[in-house]
TrEMBL record:
Sections of the chain in a coiled coil: none
InterPro entries: Iah1-like, SGNH_hydro, SGNH_hydro_sf
PANTHER family: ISOAMYL ACETATE-HYDROLYZING ESTERASE 1 (PTHR14209), ISOAMYL ACETATE-HYDROLYZING ESTERASE 1 HOMOLOG (PTHR14209:SF19)
EC number of this enzyme: 3.1.1.47
Classification via Gene3D superfamilies: SGNH hydrolase
Protein's recorded name: Isoamyl acetate-hydrolyzing esterase 1 homolog
Pfam families according to UniProt: Lipase_GDSL_2 (PF13472)
Classification of source organism: Eukaryota, Metazoa, Chordata, Craniata, Vertebrata
GO MF terms held by the record: 1-alkyl-2-acetylglycerophosphocholine esterase activity
Keywords: Hydrolase
Keyword Hydrolase: yes
Domain SGNH hydrolase-type esterase: 20-206
Family note: Belongs to the 'GDSL' lipolytic enzyme family. IAH1 subfamily.
Length: 244
């Protein structure tokens, strides 16, 4: 059978997407443990694609302008299996030392709510949305990174915690799931090993996030069908019957 004929007979294969939307902490996760767990697991079972839309340096003020360009009404709710919104590490930068990235706490919460409301408006239901708080900040390590660039320490963990609490509250109000990294990473343990430079995640940190995130994604993805049959189930004498 010619390829063109086969394509005409078979239905177009469209994998649902898990969209990871965030700042550099999301952008840099590809190639790390979080990528391995989410990307490879989803592909292994042929259930969905994992799309990384992490944008280094961005805050929620900018992210809310970008989101409608990533997911539109024409995208179709059926094509989105889940969306993670992972911002706050830049929003929580201290205004007097990093005014470009800083977003006031109240605006940060409003921006998160706005993004959730937008997703709902294009039929992405609350059960498909996961908000992720910023991780804790290891101040001494991040200060070294800042000093190496000729800057002063421009973030503090207590302030980051306020943004994390705001994120949790928005999730509660909007009815979405939430992954509170700021609390989980500090629970009864030294969290410094989860961070590569005091701000961004290390390989261990990405692995930790992957495990926590997968526990929330698994039930959302479990009902998705595998779009192609297992190879042992293909009729090798008549593959068209199995594959088209």
């Amino acid at each position: 059978m010619a390829l063109a004929e086969a394509g005409a007979r078979g239905r177009l294969l469209r994998w649902p997407r898990v969209l990871l939307f965030g700042d550099s902490i999301t952008e840099f996760c590809f190639g790390g443990q979080r990528r391995d767990v989410l990307f490879d697991t989803c592909l292994c079972f042929r259930k969905c694609d994992v799309v990384n839309r992490g944008i280094s340096g961005y805050n929620t003020r900018w992210a809310k302008l970008i989101l409608p360009r990533l997911i539109t009404e024409s995208t179709g709710a059926d094509s989105i299996a889940a969306v993670t919104i992972f911002f706050g590490a830049n929003d929580s930068a201290l205004k007097e030392l990093n005014p470009k990235q800083h977003v006031p706490l109240e605006e940060y919460a409003a921006n998160l709510k706005s993004m959730v409301q937008y997703l709902k408006s294009v039929d992405i239901t609350a059960d498909k949305i996961i908000l992720i708080t910023p991780p804790p900040l290891q101040e001494s390590a991040w200060e070294k990174a800042c000093l190496a660039k000729g800057d002063k320490l421009n973030r503090c963990n207590a302030t980051t915690g306020q943004y994390a609490q705001a994120c949790v509250q928005v999730a509660k109000e909007c009815g979405t799931d939430v992954l509170d990294l700021w609390s989980l990473m500090q629970k009864n343990q030294d969290f410094s090993s989860y961070l590569s430079d005091g701000l961004h995640l290390s390989a261990k940190g990405n692995s930790f996030v992957a495990g926590q995130l997968w526990s929330r994604l698994e039930h959302k993805l479990s009902a998705l069908p595998s779009l192609l049959p297992y190879w042992r189930d293909v009729d090798h004498t008549n593959p068209e019957a199995s594959l088209l």
